[in-house]
Amino acid sequence: MLYKIYLIDSGSGISLLESTFKELKKIQDDILTGFFNAINKTIDLIQEAMAKGRRVNEMYRVVEAEDSIILIYYHPLSRILFCSISDADDNTEKIKEVLKKIANRFWKKHQSDLKIYRTTTEKSRFQTLNVDIENLTIGGKIAEEFPKLLIVKSVLEKVLSMGMITDFDFQVAINCTGKNSPLKISRILNKKQSEIIDVLKKLEQLDIIKIRI
Q1: Tell me, what's the pLDDT at 75?
Q2: Which sign, positive or negative, has the C-alpha torsion 189, 191, 197, 200?
Q3: Which helix (H) or strand (E) is 18 found in, with range?
Q4: Are the C-beta atoms of 3 and 27 separated by less than 8 Å?
């Protein structure tokens, strides 16, 4: 689940808006430190490029830790960083998609307000975006994935005996309880998360599991 989303001005490093879905009670100080270090490095990179007269296109930066994911998306039109902190279980591609949607919604709704902010530092008008963020992220749950087995074990065993799936596919499917994320399954089976995701896609195509419930 998403913990927080920040909108940060790449020119000043000032936070324009902070949206919270889940308190950071279990997030250690070093994770927050890593978050702000990643922000600062991204800002330095952008400002260095601009100082050299280079155009800065949209960019993503992902910082993965054992218990969390930090994702930063730079929206070049607004020159704003759209940043998130989430559980390590979350699907980073889904977070990328939703941050871009939030950025486009922000630009559409607050382009004129952004001009006012950069001359007056008035940022209260940005608060209305919180409703959009809540809706677009489904209350912070947009990137959650807890695949669930759609058939009983005996039927799954028959599918295995027919050669439609491998032993590894079977083990992945058995662990699709609706409570285990792809990351957790990868840790249970001691396999790379990318391998688990590939198998999950195959199992979903066969209507054996449902990835997003």
Answers
A1: 96
A2: negative
A3: strand 15-20
A4: yes
